[in-house]
């Protein structure tokens, strides 16, 4: 299974007055990590739009378990992978490592969407193209 890893340095603006990362900043990092994971698998946003006729991959559910805090200047590694794929939805798992220690486990449910064929102002879920499934499931 395809896993994307990226190193992130915690910046001043990521932290609250107690100098620990303000938790919504992690969710922004996870959103970026999902997009970066698609690009690393060879499927850019432009590919999704132009090649597959999709509009995006909005999040419909998210949660996280926080184990170890991070502070300004720390380096963390975010490992992102797709856990499962259904017809149009998929589950993403992010593991945040601080050194060798597991700092956070985060989970997202996302859906592929395109324009509704009867009303282009509306969105409609779209089936996962087999080519993209193969890229993520075969590593």
From TrEMBL:
Keywords: Hydrolase
UniProt keyword Hydrolase, yes or no: yes
Pfam family, one: 4HBT_2
Name by which UniProt lists this protein: Acyl-CoA thioesterase
Lineage of origin: Bacteria, Pseudomonadati, Pseudomonadota, Alphaproteobacteria, Hyphomicrobiales
GO MF annotations in UniProt: fatty acyl-CoA hydrolase activity
UniProt cross-references to InterPro entries, sorted A to Z: 4-hydroxybenzoyl-CoA_TE, HotDog_dom_sf
